[in-house]
Amino acid sequence: MQAKQIVPRIGLEATTAKIEGTRGKLKCLVERGWLDEDAPGRFTLARHDGDADRGNSRCPRGSSP
Known about the structure:
This protein has helices at about 5-10, 15-30; strands at about 35-40, 40-45. With about 60 residues, the protein is of the alpha+beta class. Helix 1 (about 5-10) crosses helix 2 (about 15-30). It starts with a helix and ends in a 20-residue tail after the last strand.
């Protein structure tokens, strides 16, 4: 799914600011291994192949998104 599809489904207005903010949070979830970004801007649930947890995130928030 794309961020612009997710925003209204989680109850937010589909404004540019909300879409971009959500996209940033989705990219943090990619870094943490919760999501995959198969193509630029397209997010899916991560496929776990027994990989170790990606605990060292560069996500600016520092805690869970």
